[in-house]
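As a warm-up, study this chain.
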Amino acid sequence: MEISEVRVKLIENKDERLKAFCSVTLDNEFVVRDIKIIEGTKGLFVAMPSRKMSDHCNKCGSKNHLRARYCNNCGTQLSENRAKKDLQGRMKLHADIAHPINADCRRKIQDKVTAAFKQEDEKSKQPGYKPVDMDTPDDDEVPDIL
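Now compare it with the structure written out below.
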C-alpha cells in the first residue's frame, strides 16, 4: 500500500485537542476522509473516521445513540449501560468506519499524516496562507450514479 496523498485541514481553535481533519489517498485509487489529528498526552495521534454506536428502543424500535436516556421517537426511558465494554472496561460508544488492520499499516499512516500536519501547520504561519479545500472532488470523471 502506498499513501499517495494526504490533505490536511487545520482547525482554527488552537485550545482544543482536535488539531485537524485530513483525508488520505491510497494507491491513487481510494480515499479515506474525516481522519482526525488529535493532541494527546504523548503527542499527536491519528483517529480513524468513526460513527456513533446505536441501538433500538424496545417499545417502538426507533434507533437511538447509546448515551440517550429517552427514545428520540416515543420518549420511553431507555435502560442505562446499553453499550458493550472494551478490554479496559470503558463503554464502546463509537465504531471505526475504516481502520488499519495491523501495526505496520497504522505506523505508516500515523507517520505520513503527522508529517503532513506539521508541514501544513508551518505553511499556515506564512503570510497569504490559504487552507486546503477538502471539498474539492478527487476525480471529476466519476459518473453520477444516484
